[in-house]
Amino acid sequence: MLCVVFGLSLLDRTNISAAYIAGLAKDLRLDIGARYSTALLVFFIGYAIFELPSNFVIRRFGARYWLSFLIIAWGACVLGMGFVHSWKTLTVLRALLGVFEAGLFPGAVYIIGSWYRQYETARRVSIFYMASLLASGFGPIFAYALSLIQVGNGMYRQGWRWIFIIEGIATVVAGFVAPFFLIDFPEKARFLDERQKHIATARVALGRRSHEFQHPTVGQTFKMLMDWKIGVYCIQYFVAASSVYSLAYFQPIILRQGMGFSYAKAQLLSSPPYVFAIFASILLAWVSDKIRLRWPVLVFQSLTAVVGLLIILYVHAPGVRYFGLFLAVYGTQANVPGTLAYGQNQTARVEKRGIVSAAMISIGAAGGITGSTIFRSQDAPTYLPGMWSTICMQLLYSLLTFSMSMYFKKQNKLADEGKKPALEGVEGFRYAP
After folding, report:
1. CB–CB of 368/245 below 8 Å?
2. Dist CA 164 CA 162 (whole Å)
3. CB atoms inside a 10 Å sphere around CB 377
4. What CATH number labels 1-206?
5. Do the Cβ atoms of 14 and 143 come closer than 8 Å?
């Protein structure tokens, strides 16, 4: 169910681009000045601000009801976009969409981290995230089909409205169905008895004297945020998110201008790299869990992205450049769930994991803004500054991940030798380098 609603969230935040070319730009005059860019960017403001507050309250209200409320609320925003007559109203709804969607991604990662242990999370977070790639692959095709709907003689003959109306209704319905299928945190799970709840909580809270979850206060939350390691995780996720966004914006240019494909062929050829990324990401996440190491897989994927970007940039044969696109898409996309799992695995206390995931994804929103602005029109057709910015960020990611993992490995060794007090304040806890 988490995969379903996450896929819907990706469709709902990106369907504005499909609506734009289906007549939205003409009817609401989004082609004037920076109106369209404004409507896009306001989404990230609320998305960045409200992720941490959402994870602060999700365990208090219960994931089933809190997430269901968020799903219905953003579905209503999308549905409302189908009836707007002003670009200002559309922009306000986009801002509210960011506010309500903010809680899903960090909340879902928090839920997964509350049920599974260190070396059980990577493949599960990866499977959850891959729902976004399916949405990216099939979303434009679905939106095109909806844009063909025409009813009556008034505004309902404008196909772009039906993209918002149908997808909005689908999301609202999913929100009402969600309480029956979403799994809550272990201590609130109705399908477990008290003994099973204790076991579920204890297995992910290794070494704690008390396995009862304690809700952090606002002061305790800010104290947790002061941990310097969270800053490192945020930089890692910023790089991963900005690279994903930048490649998503650059890919159509590669296929159409760089390789000379028509619009229809470029759309069709956009999907295979993402399909490859889904299977490769899940496989490498399984390997990471199996070998009980994170950094070799994360660094390998980052360097794979670098190789792919270099091939795209400097090789002229279309077939080879397309192969480079496979590598680049896989390397950048796979490290998004991998980085989230990495941050969760270095956090001993369950209550802190919600803070970590929310902080990382909040910074990821800034990565979305960065990724959408580093490819400037004056740099066409090679977009050399944007490409090299992405390459350099990936190299930084590899260096930072390797350095942090070596630090964690040293801390584990000191703890094993009795030279270090309880790591993260929890007896028996060890980092997952």
Report:
1. yes
2. 5
3. 6
4. 1.20.1250.20
5. no
pTM: 0.83
CA distance 362 to 378: 30
CB-based burial, 18-43: b 16+ in 10 Å, e otherwise: bbbebbbbebbebeeeebbebbbbbb
Distance between CA atoms of residues 211 and 426, nearest Å: 12
How many C-beta neighbours within 10 Å does residue 71 have?
Answer: 29
The amino acid that residue 276 corresponds to is F
pLDDT at 302: 98
For residues 290-299, one letter each, b for 16 or more C-beta atoms within 10 angstroms of the residue's C-beta and e for the rest, the string is: eeebbbbbbb
**CA 402 – CA 341 distance, rounded (Å):** 15
Token duo for residue 369:
């803004």
The two three-digit tokens of residue 322, written as one number: 């397309």
**DSSP H helical ranges for 205-262:** 218-225, 228-253
DSSP alpha helix (H) spans, 182-315: 194-204, 218-225, 228-253, 263-269, 271-291, 295-314
Domain ranges (residues) in the chain: 1-206, 224-407
Q: Which two tokens stand for residue 55?
A: 């994870």
Please name which of 107, 105, 100 lies closest in space to residue 63, comparing C-alpha atoms.
107
φ and ψ of 420, to 5 deg: -130, 135
pLDDT digits (tens, 9 = 90+) for 238-288: 999 989 877 876 676 677 666 777 756 766 787 788 889 999 999 999 999
Q: What is the pLDDT of residues 47-79, one digit of tens each?
A: 989 998 998 889 888 899 999 999 999 999 999
Decide if 1-206 and 224-407 have a common fold: yes
Burial class (CB in 10 A: 0-12, 13-18, 19+), 249: middle
Q: Give 135's DSSP letter.
A: H
Regarding the domain delimited by 224-407, which CATH topology (the fold level of the hierarchy) does it fall under?
Answer: Growth Hormone; Chain: A; (1.20.1250)
